[in-house]
Design a protein that fits this description.
homodimer, alpha/beta, eight-stranded mixed β-sheet, 9 helices, globular
Chain lengths: 234, 234
């Protein structure tokens, strides 16, 4: 897996990053030497979250906390980790802060839990997927990538390698490649090119299946894609 | 994995079984000592398919070929391996031949290829999934189980162990358990209880994702579910 030294110099803003998924990604990327900005509705909360990761990783950690819009303006790699019910309104609000050429990596899953239903069921999204909804709401000069839906937030927040592949879907090949490189920085994760953004609808649904399996079997499930040549996992 | 000696005495009728998926399942089950009836629209074609498997497995193979309705009447474990576009009409036609207490295992995936679209996309099914459509079309005394969607037909038809889990969904726990036992008879397959039949919609969709990955990366992809305790895989 080739690592791109350029990414370490480009901060990753994790928008809505104080939840388990955002904190887990932040932890893993900061450990890998990436520069991370945790975004939150409240600057103070973001800074507290950043300080918690700093304490865990040590002085060399490059992490800070900002209010979401400020985080958005300070980075051109934006990782979105918010519940589906907050996704659209947040993106509308952040749109003016996004800089042209930015990449928005969306991990949103339209779980029915967002409207009081079950986390093992999904809502239908008019555009086909939460990621395609995101693509409609960002400036045209921002590329949307769907990825990281199927990683267990609990395991991300721990110290062990994960046992899960990350299927990356995007209509922008360069943005998809950068995202796969970021995925490969998480120990135990293999990135896979999942093709166009429209395929995100299936990857999002898989999360609901995994949530159901977690409830039924008491685990922290993930997926591995088997049967592909080594060239597929990069 | 406990094996149920009772299943070997109960024939499995593979309805629409002369295609790659049906032939692959037949091969694996006959090798495992199960009794299989290949069903086809034409009795002669079914018998030719059965003879081909007999030649491959040897004299001890318990396999025969029948017209679909006859196969249906002769067995109470029915495995359906037909393209989505043929599923509903076939089930309506077979309904009178199904005996009360039968189990219908449905592996149908509503691929858009069925209406001239892409095999990496799916059609929306009013009932939620092809399996739920099947459940509406069979007699009420027949239990529907959704399983085997994600196995590569090419690999099933080969001699090597597979590298794929089979997520089994059903509203009938006993039928689901019997199906998981049948799945465990295929080398390399781990069955997983996927909960209610409605969850089949996600498992069906995964096949479209795998088809897309196969096209993009030139492989025969499958899935493994990670992160669950051993008790989940049985």
């Amino acid at each position: 897996m080739s690592t791109n030294p350029a990414t370490a110099a480009r901060p990753i803003a994790i928008i809505g990053g104080t939840g388990p998924a955002g904190m887990g990604l932040a932890l893993r990327w900061v450990r890998a030497g990436e520069t991370v900005i945790i975004g939150s509705r409240e600057q103070e909360r973001a800074q507290q979250a950043a300080a918690a990761i700093q304490r865990r990783v040590g002085d060399q950690a490059r992490i800070s906390g900002m209010e979401n819009s400020a985080a958005c303006a300070a980075a051109d790699i934006l990782m979105l980790t918010v519940p589906f019910e907050g996704q659209a309104s947040l993106l509308k609000r952040l749109k003016p802060a996004m800089t042209a050429g930015s990449i928005l990596i969306d991990a949103t899953v339209p779980l029915a839990a967002g409207v009081g239903g079950r986390a093992s069921r999904t809502l239908g999204v008019w555009q086909g997927s939460a990621a395609q909804q995101a693509a409609e709401l960002v400036p045209t000069e921002v590329s949307v990538v769907a990825a990281f839906h199927n990683l267990s937030a609990d395991l991300l927040g721990g110290d062990n390698p994960l046992d899960c592949d990350v299927v990356v879907c995007s209509d922008d090949p360069d943005a998809a490649q950068l995202t796969r490189e970021l995925a490969a920085k998480i120990p135990g994760v293999r990135p896979i090119d999942g093709g166009r953004l429209e395929n995100a609808r299936i990857v999002e649904q898989i999360t609901a299946l995994l949530v159901g399996l977690n409830i039924r079997h008491k685990g922290h499930s993930g997926i591995r894609i088997t049967g592909l040549p080594p060239s597929a996992y990069r």
